[in-house]
Design goal:
Length: 295
């Protein structure tokens, strides 16, 4: 099918063929006959992806941290704290969890920081619910507000998208940001998922409106090149981007394109780590710690 020819990058989440094939057939048909129904089905799928179960090793890491739950009104998110000192919030990506940072969080604590991690709704040990929705941004803003002024936020993949939107809130106060393999804009995210499921282009206007509801701003404005400069002087964090040359999910070219509009941001390029191993590689962790410790 031609729907996959122009896929911009590989999927972070992959479905078994026995599930994927009928979904693609449905979207090919419904997308042409009933675009609104196809858009609704797409939204439901993206918002209700099954959570990835934690391994025994991951749960043991979380059990060893100080429990720090965040009551965000409509949900209580599972949170954890490691170390003492200036707070650094770590934000996981789609189908990730706080345990994704089991290498970085202890390193930050050892370097004199208080590493704070949490599970988004329908991730890790947090309650079930719609994960990819406007509440995702509101929950992150709630966590930031409860923690008070942050020394830094370190975010990965789709977590960078949420961070980008959350920091547009005038009350958010963060000194520095580290973006690990970030999605550059919501258009790339939509195109990736839609092409993977063979969703016809006729459905895209409905989906664009949905993402506008999630982000609270126009679809075209939901990009790092537009949002990061809007964070303001006191909220405009010094930025470090970390990206791997072998990232199959989000190509390094996406970050290069973003940085053309952010001349003061720094870039650390790795090789051979891909999209996920970048979270635990000692050299990357040392580079992040060094960046956070600099004036």
């Amino acid at each position: 099918m031609k729907g996959t020819v122009n896929q911009p990058n590989a999927m972070v989440v992959k479905l078994p063929l026995i599930v994927l094939a009928p979904l693609r057939l449905y979207f090919q048909l419904a997308g042409r006959i009933a675009p609104q129904a196809a858009a609704g089905a797409f939204r439901w799928l993206l918002s209700h992806m099954p959570r990835r179960l934690l391994s025994a090793r991951e749960q043991a890491f979380l059990d060893g941290a100080q429990r720090l739950d965040f009551d965000c009104g409509d949900a209580v998110l599972a949170g954890y704290s490691i170390g003492a000192g200036p707070a650094v919030l770590l934000v996981h990506g789609l189908q990730g969890s706080a345990a994704n940072f089991r290498a970085l969080a202890p390193a930050l604590a050892h370097s004199g920081y208080r590493a704070v991690i949490f599970d988004a709704v329908n991730h890790g040990n947090s309650p079930p619910g719609t994960a990819f929705s406007g509440r995702s941004v509101q929950h992150l803003r709630c966590v930031i507000e409860k923690l008070g002024p942050l020394h830094a936020i370190v975010c990965h993949s789709a977590g960078a998208y949420l961070t980008m939107l959350a920091l547009c809130e005038p009350t958010a106060s963060v000194e520095k940001c580290v973006y690990l393999a970030p999605y550059p804009d919501i258009a790339t995210t939509l195109r990736t998922f839609a092409d993977y499921l063979w969703v016809p282009r006729a459905v895209e206007p409905c989906l664009r409106r949905w993402f506008e509801d999630i982000g609270g701003m126009q679809f075209e404005q939901q990009s790092m090149r537009h949002c990061l400069p809007r964070h303001g002087t006191t909220r405009n964090p010094a930025c470090l981007f970390v990206h791997d040359t072998d990232d199959r999910h989000i190509p390094l070219d996406c970050t290069h394109a973003t940085l053309r509009h952010l001349p003061l941001a720094r870039l650390h390029v790795t090789s051979g780590l891909g999209h996920f191993h970048i979270l635990k590689e000692p050299g990357v962790i040392a580079h992040i710690v060094d960046f956070l410790q600099r004036p």
